[in-house]
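Run log, item B.
One chain of 559 residues. Sequence copied directly from the ordering sheet:
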Amino acid sequence: MIRILPRAVPWVIAALFGPVASNATARTLPASHLGKTSGVAKCDAMRNLRLDRATVTSAVFTQAGKAILQDRDGKAVPAPQLPTFCRINLTMRPESGSAIGVELWLPAAGWNGRFLATGNGGGGGRLSLGNPMMQNLRRGFAVANSDLGTAPNVLTTMGQPARWRDFGHRANHEMTRAARRFIKAFYGKPPQYSYFMGCSTGGQQALVNAQLYPADYDGILVGAPAQDRTHIHMSFVWNWNALVETPGSRLSNIKLDLVHRAIIKACGRGKDGGAPSDTYLTDPRGCRFEDVDVPRCNAGDQEDCLTDAQFLALRKVYGGAVNPRSGEQNLCACRDRQRGDAAGPRDAAARHLAAHPILPLYWVFGRDTFKPALFDFDRDVDRVDGALAGILNANSTDLVPFRRHGGKILWYHGLSDPVIPFDTSIDYYERLLRASGGDLADVQDYMRLFLVPGMAHCVRGPGAWNIGQDVAPGTETSADRDALIALVQWVERSRVPAQLTGTRFEDDDVRKPIVAQRPLCPYPAFPYYAGGDPALATSFRCKARTRGNVHASAVRYLN
């Protein structure tokens, strides 16, 4: 079966991340706990704190409204919305050749007793000081982020396996080890609870933390994780070969729109449990490319039809990467490529292969010598996995130590994700169920998976995708609309997240009116349209559907 995904924002390679946190369930220290003078002195003292394999480069007491951060282009930008805090920078070197940059923010007043570690996107290479850190500092969390040890960018790590290990699993553990030491020194006591949140690469980090360092965190928010790292990057090469290397396979945005409309006509309009007016699929698992009636060109390459080469290229992409010798599934790369950009998907594909998304293949084959068209999806897959799977992939279902620690995992994945197929999340959850004896209620006691119709990669998309990635005014303590708050209340008050509410705002701006809301359900339940206004969450119910039914990678590729 060749299955397809709903509308998404295709060719999005930059990994984004979300959610925020609450101080609603923990006691906060009074504002007088750290007065101005004592706060400055305490922050200054952090410069002299000794920590093995680490060097403090700065500790600056930053007054409210005076923080200067850097944007994604490295430009200095003011952050006037931030409260007074102690800003600590350090470099950690767990082994020779390693250099992990860490930044830790400690609120000078109103600390809620919690520590929140935040994840990264893509290949790391720089500190991610955006919404997760800023929003949660304002909420009273001590917050931290690392550059994953790949600064100034991941392409500078060629031939440096120590830095590969930092990126793959070690950077966040080292960051957490340091953060706890500084928190105790600054406040006089360790954090009462520790959390991690991240999406994409940050989701991979989240699962690695649970698998390898089960005592680091009490609660983990996992978004669209790149846990099957080596094979995800191979899928980019598979798609490149189908859509670029194959003669005549180029698809314009007009043709991508044509395909998308055919998909919705065949599989949407209420057939999948969604509302008849939806422009995306609520449960794409049952949609097969063979069942989609896309107009075919009889003569020449015209915009209102697909040529044979274009049809076969899409068929290959929707089928996902397979071993040509054994037929084993390597990774599903199913995506409804609804839109690229003005330059078209071919050029977008060229850009994403020229950047970090195939970094594991560069590490193995060399950046200057790697040729996508020559990649052997039999022998070369084994070569890459033999070198890097043990460092990068987070496919283990052994979460017993994390559960014994009392940890909880809230996991979300967009069903319109154009970068990391949602199949990987469902497959992991099903493998975990099998490893746990098949008891769904037992697994849901500590891990819940929420699949989000119409969410693209971590954020955005045509659906009601906002679950706290950007906090709307007035929802700062809402467990219903903020996944991290839901996680906090699950960990600290045993309030099980039975349902979340996804929200879509006008122009995706939380300051503007709500356009639509929809309930988000713990797998294997999906939203089901019961009638009424499809913009209202009350028009839907959570309804259990068939489990599994995904493109699952061959078992030997997951070891």
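Observations after the first pass:
- The CA atoms of residues 96 and 162 lie 7 Å apart.
- The radius of gyration is 23 Å.
Flagged for discussion on Thursday.
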